[in-house]
Every structure is written in C-alpha cells, then in structure tokens.
Amino acid sequence: MDLDPRAAWAGLTRAERGVVGFVAALAALLVFGLLTGGLAPTYFLYLLGLVGMYVLLSFGLNAQWGYTGLINFSVAAFFGLGAYGTALLTADSSPIAGGFNPLVGLVVGLALAAVVAVVIGVPTLRLRADYLAIASLGLAEVVRLIVLNQREWTNGSAGLRGLPGFFEGWPVLATFPEAMPGLRIAVPFGATILLETPFWQALLNVGLVGVFVGASYLLLGRVHRSPWGRVLRTIRADEDLAEALGKDTYAFKMQSFVLGSVIMALAGVFYAHLNLFVSPGDFEPINTFYVWIAVILGGSGSNRGAMFGGFVVIAIREGTRFLNGAGFVPLDVAPLRLLVIGLLIVAVMRFRPQGVLPPQRELIWPGALGDADDAGTPRSAERGDPRE
Amino acid sequence: MPVLEYLANGLVFSSIIVLASIGLSLVYSIADFANFAHGDTMTVGAYAALATFGVVGGLGVSVLGLPLGFFVALAVGVVTAAVVAAATHKLVYESLDTDSIGLLITSIGVAFVYRALVQIRFGSDFTGFGIQVLRPIEALVPYGVRVTQHDVAIVVSAALLVGGLHLLLQHTDLGRKMRATADNPDLARVSGIRTARVKLWTWLIGAGLAGAGGVFLGLYNQLSPRMGFNILLVVFAAVILGGIGSVYGAMLGGFLIGMINQLTPLLSDVGIPIGIEYANAVAFVIMVAVLLVRPNGIAGEAAT
C-alpha cells in the first residue's frame, strides 16, 4: 500500500470518490460550525456517539442481511433489549435490581438479546425470506407490547431513569471528566469555546463507542472472510446450493442471526449509558428502518458502506431538525423525516440497488491483495463485484 | 360472560380486516411480493374520505344512521386509494429491476411516503368523521349485545363488497383472467391474456378494497396517520393464516383473526392473565405458529 495521496485517489472507484467528497464536505461543515460557535463541542461529540451507535446497528444488520440474506425487521427490538437489559440492572429506578456495575449490565444486555434471538430464530429462520420479514416485525411488536405493558418489570411507558455512565466504578475513567481542567479556547474569528466536564464526559463516550465499533469491525471483517463467512455468502446467493454442499443452513443462519442481534444489543447498551434514560419508544419500528436505510444505502454486505450509512442517517435526523428549526420548511420534523427516509429507500432501490459502496476488496484477504500488487496486476482488475 | 357482545364486535372488526386482507392477498399473488404499503393505502383512503366528507357533509337522507354524503365520501376514498396504488405500481414498482425482496423493501419506502404526506396535510392527531355517535340498537341490548347502526352499516357494506368481488372473480372475463394470471403468469400470457393490464386491474381492485377498509376503520375507531401501519401486521396475520394468494383464504383468515382479536378479553375472563393490550400480540403469535405448522395457510396450495 502506497501512501501517495494522488495515487490513492486514483485507485478509488467513482463511488468511493463521491463518498470521500461527501464525508469531507460534511466534516468541513461541522468544523465550520464548531469554530463559529454554531455547534457546541459537547453536542458535536454526542452526535458522533449517535453515529457510532448507528454504525454498530448497521454492522449487526449487515451480519444478518448483508452476509446471509436474512430479512430481519426486528432491529429495534434487539436494540431495545440491550438498552433495557443494562438499564434494569444499573438504574436507580429499576423495579428489578438496580445499582449493579454497568459491566454486569453489558453482559446481561447482550445475553438477553442472544436468548431472545434464539427464541425468535427457532420459529422464523426456517421460513421463506418474505415470511421472515413479516414474522420478525410481528415478534418485535410483541416484545414492544410486553415492555410497554408489564409495568412491574419495566416501569411501562414511564421508562427507566437514573442510569449511571458506563465508566462508573472504574479506576481512573470514572472521575476523568471531573478531573480534567476546564479549557477556554479563543477562536480568532468566532466565539470562545469552553471545554468543561460535560465535554470530557462526551469525549469518553465517543471513545467507548469507538472501541465497540472498532472491535466489531475487526471481528466481522475476520469472520466474513473465514470459511464460515463463505458459507453465509453462499446461503445468501443460493440456499439450495449450500444445502446440496452438505451445509446445515439452518444452523448457519441461526449463528449469523444471533451474532447480528448481539451487536445490535451492544449498540443498545451504549445508547442506554449515553442517554441515561430508556423508554418503550426505543422499540418503535421506525428505528428498525433507520438502520435498514443505512445498510441498503451503504451497500448490503459492506461494513465500510454501513459506516457511511450511519453518517447519512444522522445527517438526515439532524438535517431535518436543523431545516425545521431554521424555518426553511414549514413542516413538522417527524413527517419530513419520514418523507426523506421513504424517498431515499425508493430512490436507492430504483437507481442503485447494490448501494453506494458494495462489498469489494473486503472480500479479498489482505495478503492476497499485496501479492497481486507486487506482481504488478492492474488494481482495477480486482475490483469487480465478486457476487456477479 | 358477554360472549355475544365479543362475537358481535368481532364480526364488525372482521369485516374491516377481511376487506384489507383480500386486497393484500390479491396483490401478493399477482405482483408477487409482500406489500408493506398496503396498510398506508388504507390510511390514504380513509383521509381522502375524510376530506370529501368535510365538503359534502350531511348531504341527503340518512341510511343506517349515516348521511348519504358519507357514502359519497366512501366512494371517493375507494377511488383515491385505488388510483394512488395503481400510480405507484406504474411509476415505482414497474420500473424496478429487482426480485420480490427488493420490491418488499421498496414498498416500505412507499409506505413512509404515503404516511408522511398524509401527516403533512392533516397533522398527526387523532381525528374522526364527526358523525354523531349513535346509541346501541335497543332491540339487541337485552341480549347483552351493544352494537350501533354504524356497525351494521360496516358489516353490510363489507358483505356487499366481498360478494361483488366473488361475482367478479367467478363470473366475469376479468375475474377469470385474474385467477389465471395469479395461478401461472407465464401460461396466462402465452394464452393471450394481457397480463400487464390484469396486473393493473388487480392493483386497482385490491387497493380499492383497502381504501374501503380504511374508511370503515376510521368510522369504527378514529383516524390517525399511523392507523394503517398499526393494523398492517394484523392484516398480514390474516393473509398468512388464510394462505397467501388465496382470496377465499384471505376472507376466512380475516374473519378468524378479527374474531380472535376481539375475543381476547375472554382469556382474562377465564383466568389466563393476557389482557386486551395483547390482542394484537396474540394475532402475531398465531401467525408465527401457522407459518411453522402449515406455511401455506388454511386454503393455501401445495408447497411451492
């Protein structure tokens, strides 16, 4: 891999250049907002944390839909289970058992999601693809109704308050935000920026989600290239073929379903300790479709695409809020957002069903890529979509 | 136990579900995908009727406690839903080069667009037709059944529509072509049936019935932009229970799911702690159970 920027730019596909341009423009806009004081640094970090959360959710869905072709419409349910799993154990107002260390909450949240994934998977994963879509949406609704109505377990519609931050009880990190000095940064042509305890807290959260995202990315990239990942891709392309090759497709589908669900729950755990409040609203089906748009826009099966999709979803959520707040559009935020999401889904399926960044080099072992470069093979030759 | 009352309510609710599930099943069999925009097509029909009713209002004499203007509004709702769905078919679905899963995902986008437009135009609050709520029919109260003339109107109208569809399917040229296309599109095509035209008619009829279901749902409960999406899964449960692609199965499935939905209070009456807040959950669990045991539903054909 060379580090010459001009050569690196030339090595990108047109879509990749577009994405790089989009991300650069967005970053420039945000930096401009930060410098002029229009965007508080703490809020910026909060948004970054939400991006990380959507990236995690998209990774989870990618492991199910992108790798194996499972249409899971219960993303919100697993996200909510992760959030409630940790909230019920750590929150002050928990009706079951509050006050545990968030690490216990993390483990319980993930375990809860894994168990529910098996329970939902057993009846649904043998079904035809479109039945799985309907059944998983229905079962997600059942989970939502249970959380909403079993008040003695979940506090019902009031939700759970008083969650600790994720690092509560850790040696150094628990007191890191208070221990850091408050900074004043005077920007030459803008407002003075204050960096105080909430900023350091937010920075810590971003670091946490960064670790989650990085670990999931490495793990998923590794398993996707492994023999196990190859079976999943075969199932997606032709399930009968995988069966004919002697693979127990039901078992592989179940493993992929549980893996994806646990990653979604990880996003839920992060969200619970970011927001310090969870409610049944987190189970709303619209959250599922936010993640879907991130994955199909980014490119099903591509984790780079999922990251891009996570950014776009936050850009839509915050962009509609901004347009509305600035009075450009005389509409409510909710329907406007719904309209944008709906049009985007239709447009992607119409004009670019494979997504903006379909999986390419991530399917090739890095070693093999290096050999090919050494042999002087033109790089464009490797860039065809291996699924075609 | 007010079983009779539950049964009466079940009959009214079933009528709405039957109208919706027939349309969904027709489209499922001919266009070959699970149309997630079907619920929001109902919403479109309901709100088109609401807007019309605001204009024509209490026009003319009243039939079964409903002014004649309501039936004009109903017709407008049906036509609007049908035209909107057929236009979507022409503009969106037909231009896609994708499989049934891609169409399914697209239909979710379409559903969001419908709902967003309704919400932008009419707001997100609950609303109603503003027709005076009637007292229960006196003659039935001694039996513990409290139904209004409006409920009777819903059941009678649904029965007329379903009967009309039956006649259409069995005794007209278009009906035979529709059944042939649903059964085997390629064979229908080589037999000289213009399947594209039949498809368009299927969309018109299916969405029209959904529009009628939406109007009645608004009369039975209330209108809100989420009304269609909220009932969509119940309708899917009915279609799957009946067997996808079978119109008569959808009628039966709609009837059963509507009844089960309204009979849920019986569970707590006999001591099972499942309250009415779980009425929809019960329907979904039944749906999954049916998929497991008999994936082709009650009236479904042999495995495909």
Automatic annotation (TrEMBL), chain A:
<dbReference type="GO" id="GO:0005886">
    <property type="term" value="C:plasma membrane"/>
</dbReference>
<feature type="transmembrane region" description="Helical">
    <location>
        <begin position="103"/>
        <end position="122"/>
    </location>
</feature>
<feature type="transmembrane region" description="Helical">
    <location>
        <begin position="328"/>
        <end position="349"/>
    </location>
</feature>
<keyword id="KW-1003">Cell membrane</keyword>
<feature type="transmembrane region" description="Helical">
    <location>
        <begin position="199"/>
        <end position="220"/>
    </location>
</feature>
<keyword id="KW-0812">Transmembrane</keyword>
<feature type="transmembrane region" description="Helical">
    <location>
        <begin position="289"/>
        <end position="316"/>
    </location>
</feature>
<feature type="transmembrane region" description="Helical">
    <location>
        <begin position="257"/>
        <end position="277"/>
    </location>
</feature>
<feature type="region of interest" description="Disordered">
    <location>
        <begin position="368"/>
        <end position="388"/>
    </location>
</feature>
<keyword id="KW-1133">Transmembrane helix</keyword>
<feature type="transmembrane region" description="Helical">
    <location>
        <begin position="43"/>
        <end position="63"/>
    </location>
</feature>
<protein>
    <submittedName>
        <fullName>Inner-membrane translocator</fullName>
    </submittedName>
</protein>
<feature type="transmembrane region" description="Helical">
    <location>
        <begin position="70"/>
        <end position="91"/>
    </location>
</feature>
<keyword id="KW-0472">Membrane</keyword>
<dbReference type="InterPro" id="IPR001851">
    <property type="entry name" value="ABC_transp_permease"/>
</dbReference>
<feature type="transmembrane region" description="Helical">
    <location>
        <begin position="129"/>
        <end position="147"/>
    </location>
</feature>
<dbReference type="Pfam" id="PF02653">
    <property type="entry name" value="BPD_transp_2"/>
</dbReference>
<dbReference type="InterPro" id="IPR043428">
    <property type="entry name" value="LivM-like"/>
</dbReference>
<dbReference type="GO" id="GO:0015658">
    <property type="term" value="F:branched-chain amino acid transmembrane transporter activity"/>
</dbReference>
<feature type="transmembrane region" description="Helical">
    <location>
        <begin position="19"/>
        <end position="37"/>
    </location>
</feature>
From TrEMBL, chain B:
<feature type="transmembrane region" description="Helical">
    <location>
        <begin position="100"/>
        <end position="117"/>
    </location>
</feature>
<keyword id="KW-0029">Amino-acid transport</keyword>
<keyword id="KW-0813">Transport</keyword>
<dbReference type="GO" id="GO:1903806">
    <property type="term" value="P:L-isoleucine import across plasma membrane"/>
</dbReference>
<feature type="transmembrane region" description="Helical">
    <location>
        <begin position="152"/>
        <end position="169"/>
    </location>
</feature>
<feature type="transmembrane region" description="Helical">
    <location>
        <begin position="231"/>
        <end position="258"/>
    </location>
</feature>
<dbReference type="GO" id="GO:0015808">
    <property type="term" value="P:L-alanine transport"/>
</dbReference>
<keyword id="KW-1133">Transmembrane helix</keyword>
<dbReference type="InterPro" id="IPR001851">
    <property type="entry name" value="ABC_transp_permease"/>
</dbReference>
<dbReference type="GO" id="GO:0015190">
    <property type="term" value="F:L-leucine transmembrane transporter activity"/>
</dbReference>
<feature type="transmembrane region" description="Helical">
    <location>
        <begin position="70"/>
        <end position="88"/>
    </location>
</feature>
<keyword id="KW-0812">Transmembrane</keyword>
<comment type="similarity">
    <text>Belongs to the binding-protein-dependent transport system permease family. LivHM subfamily.</text>
</comment>
<keyword id="KW-0997">Cell inner membrane</keyword>
<dbReference type="GO" id="GO:0005886">
    <property type="term" value="C:plasma membrane"/>
</dbReference>
<feature type="transmembrane region" description="Helical">
    <location>
        <begin position="43"/>
        <end position="64"/>
    </location>
</feature>
<keyword id="KW-0472">Membrane</keyword>
<dbReference type="InterPro" id="IPR052157">
    <property type="entry name" value="BCAA_transport_permease"/>
</dbReference>
<dbReference type="Pfam" id="PF02653">
    <property type="entry name" value="BPD_transp_2"/>
</dbReference>
<keyword id="KW-1003">Cell membrane</keyword>
<dbReference type="GO" id="GO:0015188">
    <property type="term" value="F:L-isoleucine transmembrane transporter activity"/>
</dbReference>
<feature type="transmembrane region" description="Helical">
    <location>
        <begin position="270"/>
        <end position="293"/>
    </location>
</feature>
